[in-house]
Specification:
This protein is an alpha/beta fold. The chain has a single domain, classed as Rossmann fold (3-Layer(aba) Sandwich). The protein contains nine helices and seven strands, in the order H-E-H-E-H-E-H-E-H-E-H-H-E-H-H-E. It is globular, with a radius of gyration of 18 Å.
């Protein structure tokens, strides 16, 4: 007679239908693209939603060719709920049922609060917070029907430190909202089989940081943490892979800092 804990038994549905959707995954030097390839390498089918339709399709083609999995790229503005829903409909029509969602689409904002251009506050929050809500809601509807799902949201160490990095107050507020949304969804969706977690990166060498960081600038940024470097997209991709895996089945409502020790709490 087996004594295996039923709560630890892998869900057979996930072994057969491992589809992950990533928003904001088409930038050449971004976290999203690196994560898409990392997950495809591990056998995940991949759906990509990005503002750039052509780039989304190109990344999907790369993934199919390099990793031998199924992949679909769709163009959509994550700040437009109807566009997000249409993108999910397209992905679900071509891939297997959605197992995981990774919300990565976002914009930076280096404007000081007293110098905010008109519309900047709305622009940043609509993409960085509303976009997470729209994608999470649509994905959760599918996940709840299947009784299983993983959602991972990208926050930032800025949300925990009140800024202090490249971006300023609107970005900080949006990313703090992402942590609150993550916790609220974790509480509501947990009983329905869906875990929801956030990742809070520190400085990462990506396009959103300018993509042209000098070695001196990287060293100065790394000095704020306890490790002698800034992060890479692969660092975040590895954290995502864990949080959407079966191994993270008892982890929800958490914010995982991947920041080289910049913020300890």
């Amino acid at each position: 007679m087996s004594t295996q804990d039923p709560q630890s038994t892998p869900n057979p549905r996930t072994e057969q239908t491992r589809t992950v959707v990533l928003t904001g995954a088409a930038s050449p030097r971004g976290i999203g693209r690196a994560s898409a390839h990392h997950l495809a390498e591990a056998g995940w089918d991949v759906g990509i939603i990005d503002l750039d339709q052509t780039a989304s399709e190109q990344v999907a083609a790369e993934i199919r060719e390099q990793h031998g999995v199924r992949a679909v790229g769709v163009g959509a503005d994550v700040a437009d709920e109807s566009a997000v829903r249409a993108a999910f409909d397209r992905i679900e029509s071509e891939l297997r049922s959605i197992t995981a969602l990774v919300n990565l689409a976002g914009v930076s904002s280096a404007h000081a609060y007293l110098d905010l251009p008109e519309g900047e506050w709305h622009r940043v929050l609509s993409i960085n917070l509303d976009g997470v809500h729209y994608a999470s809601l649509r994905a959760a509807e599918s996940m709840v029907r299947s009784g299983y799902g993983r959602i991972v949201n990208l926050s930032s160490v800025s949300a925990q430190r009140g800024g202090g990095t490249f971006s300023k107050t609107p970005y900080t507020v949006a990313k703090a909202g992402v942590i609150g949304l993550t916790r609220g969804l974790a509480r509501e969706l947990g009983p329905r089989g869906v875990t929801v977690n956030a990742i809070a990166p520190g400085p990462i060498d990506t396009d959103i940081m300018g993509g042209t960081l000098s070695e001196e600038r990287k060293a100065a940024m790394a000095a704020d943490g306890v490790l002698p470097r800034i992060g890479t997209p692969r660092d975040i991709a590895a954290a995502i892979a864990y949080l959407i895996s079966e191994d993270a089945g008892f982890v929800t409502g958490q914010t995982l800092n991947v920041d080289g020790g910049l913020y300890m709490h």
